[in-house]
Every structure is written in structure tokens, then in C-alpha cells.
Amino acid sequence: MESRQGKLIINKSGGSASSNSKTYRVTLPNSWIDELEMGSDNRDLVLSFDGSKIMIAPVETLEKFAEKRKEHNLIRLNYYNSNELCSAIVADYSTTELAVENYSDDIIHLAFGNNAAPSWSDYEAFLEERCVPRSRDGIKKYLEELGIDEYNPLEIIKKTDGRMAEDNQWIEVKEL
What we know:
By secondary structure, this protein is of the alpha+beta class. The chain has 5 helices and 8 strands. The strands form 3 sheets. It has a 4-stranded antiparallel β-sheet with strand order 7-6-5-8, covered by helices on one side. A two-stranded antiparallel ribbon has the order 1-2. A two-stranded antiparallel ribbon has the order 3-4. The radius of gyration is 21 Å and the shape is elongated. About 15% of the residues are buried.
């Protein structure tokens, strides 16, 4: 890993911002941007903060994410509202990482709402939201009728398409 020392560029905010507002920037070397295949045609970034480090990465297409992990256990989920594809998710069960692309402007119909960089636990919560609750009375009988031995949200969604009585959303599951 190459490291360089830099300086934080601090500017006073203008416009309707408060008098104490500031914006922060950092300059990155051209060689790093070139290696990430970024530039004027590809400027979208994912910024991550773990409490002590800021990480910057290019937004990866689903195809590129899957291609890099073709030896892994990958699942693709297409999340629909009626017949409109709203979100596509590729989940890597080998590394518990995911990539998401949204196709709708309606936040209500997106798999993760306005969360542009969902975590694996967000993904697990999303799957469980599209299933019968695990605490439901008679859940064992329900799972038996589906032909499932234990409560597993992905297996339930494979059988039910993640359909719920109260909305028009559903999920198409494909193993890659």
C-alpha cells in the first residue's frame, strides 16, 4: 500500500450557511485516480468512516462487483414494485459484502431507502422484513408447508418471492 502525507484544505462556507460553517477537501494524486479508473466520466465515490479512518473507493457496478468475485457464493436479488425494477442487489455470501444499484427515484420503493451504502446487517434486516415474522404463532407449520426446516429469510423469499399482503413489492432471486 502506498501512503502519502497531505494537508486538509479548509474553506469557509458561503451562501446561506452559518458563519462558522466550513467545507473540507483533500487533493489526491493523479496516479491513484487513474488506477481506480476514475476521472471526469466516473466521479461517483463511496466514502466510509470507521471511527478512525476515512476510506474512499469508486462506486462499483454490479457487474464489476460480481466479476471480481466469480469464485464466491453470490446471490442477485431484483427488488420490484409491481413490474418496476427498483433496486438490484448482489450479495457475496463468502465475504458478507454487497453491491446495490437503484433504478427508482421513489425512496419508498428502494430496497434500502436512502441508505446508499448498506451493510450486511442492513441486508439481513431487509430480507427479514420481506418474510413472515419469526415470532409468528404457528411459524413451524408455515415453514413445513414451504418445505423449509428452519427460519431462513433467504430460503423463505425463494419460495414466496418476498411478497407481503400489504404492498406490491416482491423479489426475484438468482444464484450467480
